[in-house]
From TrEMBL:
Hydrolase recorded as keyword: no
Entry keywords, A to Z: Glycosyltransferase, Golgi apparatus, Membrane, Signal-anchor, Transferase, Transmembrane, Transmembrane helix
EC number from the UniProt entry: 2.4.1.22
Principal location class: Golgi
Record field: transmembrane: 30-50
Native source species: Salvia divinorum (Maria pastora)
GO MF term (any one): lactose synthase activity
Subcellular location, record wording: Golgi apparatus membrane
Protein name: Lactose synthase
Recorded superkingdom: Eukaryota
Length: 454
């Protein structure tokens, strides 16, 4: 294209010269212009030559996209220098991209924007709902480890409730089959949270217990050996689970791990094979005043147990718009979530906390500051439509980024927060598209990566 336009310029210059010659100007004047015309033409020819052999003049459309551009190898160009200005400019540019994207999506005016592709999701979901079959290794009520292997009697509660909810709901669901030959997946029903509190096991005994458990089922049944555990899965929310498979490496490397500690940095987590379980502090019903005025820009409360939180404290501790609390809160936590526009989820010792679930429940738009967190249900949900994701490096520009979100755009985000609350809700009797069903969907996506026909 550049070559063609250079040719056009050259051609029109030459024709104009010829036209001007036709104006019966004195010949002297023609010769006066001749050298400069030749010089210009030569320069243009040189440019033409360069542009046809180098890509210096082409702006490749895909290079306009920073992520893709960054993955290309610019071995000939000097290394990029990321000064503070460059970081700030990038943060602002990315915020603008997100903003335009959300405004575009918001115009659709339904729940389409919550999903990457709602139609594909809905038709897959139907198929999943009718075809997926799970076999659970059976354990009797009088098993000495019934407390660990069978579902809890009471309604699950607390920070790690997701683990117990999932098992309890799964065991009563229509996905269960008694016939292992028709199972797509096999469930290892141990509870990491319960092992941790069992005095016979404790934190230090979890690894041995898992090793023995897998030894037992692989000798008693034939299913484990068929695939080395690849069609098996377990579910765990406590971060202690990160180390639980150290003496059962086949579980770590082959089985599907549905865990709350889903960071690319966690040595036991294998992205794509494993999936993220949302950590949700279970609450029923709606909080009062969900639609109240939100006067505060941002809110965070928690302990300082990571460099990311240290940075947050260092930059924002005295700010009047973003309130960052470390240690005890004087006010009520739910009040703070209800009165803030944005609620920060900041990586601590772990990437996962119940804060995303808390923010959504109280109608506050979550801001995720946790690099490389494999976000829950991200195979299904379009996180950009109901949250703001900020790189750790951009903590100093947090206020700029949040203030750059226009009112109409914020309303779209918040509207989507209200819609997506359903997906972050556990129900003892599962409701379509709730947390239980979405975990099943994540499993379904991973079901057939390996299927052994005996
Ligand atoms: C980038 O190019 C340099 C120089 O040609 C080469 O040494 C390097 O391996 C390349 N890196 C990648 C990721 O291709
Ligand atoms: C999924 O299956 C359950 C149980 O059969 C049923 O109640 C529910 O309506 C199904 N959902 C969809 C979307 O088909
Ligand atoms: C494994 O089986 C042995 C023998 O039946 C039993 O004593 C032990 O408790 C089992 N361990 C686990 C973790 O299931
Ligand atoms: C499974 O493999 C292990 C190790 O190779 C073996 O000891 C065990 O007997 C096998 N299980 C069955 C049910 O054949
Ligand atoms: C915040 O205020 C405290 C107490 O006035 C002060 O010691 C600290 O340096 C301030 N921090 C920042 C980042 O301004
Ligand atoms: C919390 O209460 C203590 C003591 O009453 C007070 O010194 C402190 O300023 C309060 N903090 C906030 C954030 O209101």
């Amino acid at each position: 294209m550049a070559a063609a336009s250079s040719l056009y310029v050259l051609h029109s210059l030459l024709t104009r010269r010829r036209d001007s010659a036709h104006l019966s100007l004195p010949l002297k004047s023609f010769f006066f212009y001749m050298p400069s015309t030749l010089a210009l033409a030569t320069s243009l020819l040189i440019l033409l030559y360069i542009s046809s052999t180098s890509n210096l003049f082409f702006i490749h459309p895909h290079l306009a996209h920073p992520e893709i551009g960054a993955s290309l190898n610019f071995s000939q160009s000097p290394p990029l220098k990321f000064t503070d200005f460059a970081i700030r400019d990038r943060a602002i540019r990315e915020a603008q991209d997100r903003s335009n994207f959300r405004l575009q999506m918001g115009l659709q005016g339904n729940d389409k924007e919550l999903f990457h592709d709602r139609d594909v999701f809905l038709s897959n979901y139907k198929e999943m709902n009718t075809s997926l079959r799970i076999y659970i290794y059976p354990h009797r009520q009088d098993d000495p480890f019934a407390n660990v292997l069978l579902p809890v009697d009471s309604e699950p509660g607390g920070n790690y409730a997701s683990e117990s909810y999932f098992k309890k709901v799964l065991m009563r669901s229509h996905f269960i089959t008694e016939d292992p030959s028709e199972a797509d997946l096999f469930f290892l029903p141990f509870s990491i949270a319960r092992l941790r509190h069992d005095p016979r096991v404790g934190i230090n005994g979890i690894q041995d217990f898992i090793r023995d458990y897998v030894f037992n089922i692989s000798h008693e049944y034939s299913y484990w050996n068929r695939s080395g555990g690849a069609d098996h899965f377990y579910v765990a929310c406590h971060s202690i689970g990160r180390a639980a498979m150290e003496k059962a490496e086949a579980v770590k490397f082959n089985a599907i791990q549905i865990v709350c500690s889903s960071s690319y940095y966690v040595f036991s987590y294998v992205a794509h094979k494993d999936a993220s379980l949302p950590q949700i502090w279970p609450r029923q019903g709606d909080p009062p005043n969900l639609a109240r005025e939100r006067s505060k820009l941002g809110f965070f409360a928690g302990s300082i147990n990571s460099p990311v939180r240290e940075k947050l404290l260092q930059v924002w501790q005295n700010d009047s718009e973003i309130s960052v609390h470390f240690g005890r809160l004087n006010t009520s936590y739910s009040e703070e979530l209800l009165r803030s526009k944005f609620c920060l989820h900041v990586k601590g010792f772990e990437v996962n906390t119940a804060r995303i679930g808390d923010a959504l429940y109280y109608g506050c738009v979550p801001v995720i500051i946790a690099n490389h967190y494999d976000l829950p249900f991200q195979d299904i949900l379009n996180w950009r439509s109901f949250s703001v994701i900020v790189a750790t490096l951009d903590i100093p520009f947090l206020k700029k980024i949040l203030n750059a979100i226009r009112v109409e755009e914020y309303l779209i985000l918040r509207n989507n927060v209200f819609k997506v609350r359903k997906q972050f809700q556990w129900n003892l009797s599962p409701v379509d598209y709730d947390a239980f069903y979405l975990v099943m969907y994540e499993l379904w996506l991973r079901r057939s990566s390996l299927r052994v026909i005996p």
